[in-house]
Amino acid sequence: MAAGIGSGRGLLATMAVVVVCSGVVQGYLTPLLPGIGAHLGIGSVGQNNLYLLSQLAFAVLTPLLSRLGDLYGHRRVLRVSVSMVTGGSLLMAAWPATATLALGMSLQGAVVGFFPLLAGILRSRAPELGRTGMSVLVGALLVSIGAGGLVAGSLSEGHAVAGLWTAVPLSAAALTAALVLPEGSAARGGHFHFGAATLLTLGLVALVLVLAQGSAWGWASPASWGTAALALVLLAAWVAVEHRAAHPLVKVRLLRGSRLAVVNVHTFCLAFGAIGFLGANAVFLGTEPDEAGYGMGWGSRTIALVSLAMVALGCLGSTVTPRLAGRVGDRTMLALGGAVCAAGFLTMTATDGAPAPYLVGALLVGLATGIFEAVTRTLAAEVVAEDETALSVGLNELALSLGAAIGAAVIGALFAAHRAAPDGRLTLAAFRWSWTVCAGVALLGAAAGLAFRHGTAERGPAPAHPTGPAHPTGPSHPAGSPHPAGPARAEQPLARNGDAA
Questions:
Q1: 371 vs 149, 271, 323, 398, 484, CA distance in Å?
Q2: How far apart are CA 150 and CA 248, in angstroms?
Q3: 105 and 235 share one domain
Q4: Position 200 pLDDT exceeds 70
Q5: What is the pLDDT of residues 392-418, one digit of tens each?
Q6: Considering only 31-35, 271-275, 428-432, which range has the smallest mean pLDDT?
Q7: Cα–Cα distance between 155 and 161 in angstroms, integer?
Q8: For residues 248 and 469, is the Cβ–Cβ distance under 8 A?
Q9: Is the torsion defined by CA of 84, 87, 90, 94 positive or negative?
């Protein structure tokens, strides 16, 4: 195996630097939110809205960066993405304020492009590494997510905003690594559909905005109804444009496949709570119980330890899922992931957030995250024809990002609706409603999982216009999702036991 950067271990080691940056960026901010909020005067609702903004950036950038990588080359787009993350990290650390946090977290959303772009380079430059190479990168991602939060939390124990510097040296190292990485396969060429990108971006922003601000505006107000109608019109127009486009941004026709639709619905429902609630989790853990009557009153370092424990349980869940699926079947694993997630939120609800039960519930949510991400990543790659694998995975990544963003928006709306006058502090009812809604949506995901059936790979109808080379160069992988879909070819199903139609 070659020792240089162009292939083999050298290539993998260089990629690992970029992946470590990705993990740290995904894991270091959440435990800092309560302390930074208190330091800068950002309330609980504002803290959740910052987390919501990051999730919205992930949702918008997921299809954009994947498509740009296909058009202009994975290495070039990776360098742009790492530069955006580096700039955002430095901006927040050097000038911490509400506005710079909002802008910096939006720029950091470009981290969503790291994994799919690296996967494209790895597959073309060192195909002999296969899933072994991907496993190494996933391991680096998992470790860095937990370690990043712990380091940032420890730094912020002395000064609230000191932890913001955690990502700066790592993003600089990742930029250096991106500059020396070789190019992957040649750019496929084609045209970037700016009209479709604009419609999708504006539609997603309008949708998340009405969910986040509907309570403050009044759900029956003209502002809420008008924004909701605008979101529906924009997204409907986006779908219509994509169907007619010679070079679509996202091949939405793949959603006609019933099994892929089931996988995406399940992904959306589980991401809604398991990922969408992470910002609210930090807020709850950091709330002083003597002042609010609930919460833990923990500092950033202790909150980071909880996040690390959740990541560890998620890693365990993803590790055991393939073996369990071989015994009980994919449909059962989908339902199990939803049930475990719902059980975690119901535990929080039933005990009103008492410390020990709350932590048990949070760990169950972490376990469910590993289960659902492992099984959905695999199935999204298997339920379509081989030449549409990465496109299918990209739609699944979009479902995850949307689920997380909309989940955070709904939680933000519930927070805004349950504040105690006159100080505006959140009441326990705000969290109780949030946990209950997340549990209900997780149960819907479990029900969707029971509708999954195995069968032959589905191919959507041929597009009306030629769309360029059919075989994709790499799967998409969103921020916060540690499990890739694997190679671009369709693998054998994760399991078939008990999944007959």
A1: 22, 12, 11, 18, 13
A2: 41
A3: no
A4: yes
A5: 666 777 788 788 878 988 888 888 888
A6: 31-35
A7: 8
A8: no
A9: negative
Whether 160 has a pLDDT exceeding 90, the answer reads no
Q: Contact at 8 Å (CB) between 8 and 182?
A: no
What are 307-347's pLDDT values in tens digits? 888 888 888 888 788 888 888 888 999 999 999 999 999 99
Cα dist from 52 to 208, 244, 325, whole Å: 9, 32, 33
Tell whether 481 is covered by a domain: no
Average pLDDT on 129-157 reads 72
Report pLDDT digits (tens) over 242-254.
888 777 777 666 6
Q: What pLDDT, on the 0 to 100 scale, is given for residue 350?
A: 93
Nearest to 66 by CA among 392, 328, 307: 392
| N-to-C CA span, the chain | 45
Which stretches within 275-329 are classed as H helix? 278-286, 289-292, 300-328
The span from the CA of 74 to the CA of 364, in Å, is 37
d(CA 239, CA 252): 7
Q: Tokens standing for 321?
A: 């899922």
State whether 287 and 220 are in the same domain.
no
Regarding whether 327 and 207 lie in a shared domain, the answer is: no
Torsion (CA) 490, 137, 302, 279 in degrees, nearest 10: -50
Q: Is residue 142 scored above 60 in pLDDT?
A: yes
Q: Are residues 200 and 273 in the same domain?
A: no
> Distance between CA 335 and CA 313 in Å, rounded?
18
CB 380 within 8 A of CB 257: no
What's the full length of the chain, in residues?
Answer: 501
CA distance 360 to 197: 41
Read off the tokens for 44. 């609980």
Flag whether 485 is in a domain: no
Q: What is the pTM of this model?
A: 0.69
Label each residue of 375-409 as H, E or C.
Answer: HHHHHHHHCECHHHHHHHHHHHHHHHHHHHHHHHH
How far CA 264 is from CA of 138, 148, 271, 372, 399, in Å, comes to 22, 29, 10, 11, 6
What is residue 479's predicted lDDT score, i.e. its pLDDT? 35
With left for phi above 0 and alpha for psi between -120 and 50, is residue 295 left, alpha or beta?
left
CB count within 10 Å of CB 147 equals: 19
Domain that includes residue 231, residue range? 193-248
